[in-house]
């Protein structure tokens, strides 16, 4: 159980329910193939049925960890830090990004956009979900829109989401891993007919790395 004092610090963003942190190669989207240090924060109520990190959903399963420790670990490995989840925007990201920025680190976030944006970010990857749509302010600042395609209707959803982001946002369609053999041909055909979109693959899974 999280003690009351720790809970207060978590609610203020001075501690975060840390699921895992690791140095690897970014496998998806615009920055794929580049080295980055990942900070995976526990807690998510978006509830995608195909989520491949369901163990991140319950924040209480992940130990509250001080921002100072998280920043110190991150600074040892890379100048690019990716904060993901779970849904990291369930928590106040301002203390974390302030600490990372104080160490001259680039800050990237991967989010569903379901909560207001906190923190200072060099790159915002918005991956919207039908179950809990993004708030308007995240659409406005998204650098990258990454829509996961599980079935044909997700292409309709993708266009609805693309209509709401800024004109400089890079658009990606990414096959959901468990049905990739079925949806990759669908995505390839769609991108060829609608070249404003790009294909994103989970290349880290093909490379067999975290």
TrEMBL record:
Any one GO BP annotation for this protein: tRNA queuosine(34) biosynthetic process
Residues annotated to bind [4Fe-4S] cluster: 44, 48, 51
Pathway of action: Purine metabolism; 7-cyano-7-deazaguanine biosynthesis
PROSITE patterns recorded: RADICAL_SAM (PS51918)
Stored SUPFAM superfamilies: Radical SAM enzymes (SSF102114)
Residues annotated as domain Radical SAM core: 31-210
Subunit text: Homodimer.
HAMAP family xref list: QueE
The name this protein goes by in its record: 7-carboxy-7-deazaguanine synthase
Species this chain originates from: Flagellimonas nanhaiensis
Gene: queE
């Amino acid at each position: 159980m999280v003690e009351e004092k720790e809970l207060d610090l978590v609610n203020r963003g001075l501690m975060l329910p840390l699921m895992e942190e690791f140095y690897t190669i970014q496998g998806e989207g615009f920055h794929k193939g580049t080295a980055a240090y990942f900070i995976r924060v526990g807690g998510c109520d978006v509830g995608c049925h195909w989520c491949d990190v369901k163990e991140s959903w319950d924040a209480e399963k992940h130990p509250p960890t001080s921002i100072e420790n998280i920043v110190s670990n991150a600074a040892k490995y890379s100048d690019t830090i990716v904060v993901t989840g779970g849904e990291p925007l369930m928590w106040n990201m301002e203390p974390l990004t302030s600490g990372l920025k104080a160490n001259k680190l680039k800050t990237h976030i991967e989010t569903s956009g379901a909560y207001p944006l906190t923190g200072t970010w060099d790159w915002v990857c918005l991956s919207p979900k039908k179950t809990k749509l993004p708030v308007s302010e995240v659409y406005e600042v998204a650098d990258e829109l990454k829509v996961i395609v599980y079935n044909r209707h997700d292409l309709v959803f993708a266009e609805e989401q693309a209509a709401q982001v800024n004109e400089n946002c890079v658009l990606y369609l990414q096959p959901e891993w468990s049905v990739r053999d079925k949806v990759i041909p669908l995505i390839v055909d769609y991108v060829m007919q609608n070249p404003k979109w790009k294909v994103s693959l989970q290349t880290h899974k093909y490379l067999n790395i975290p």
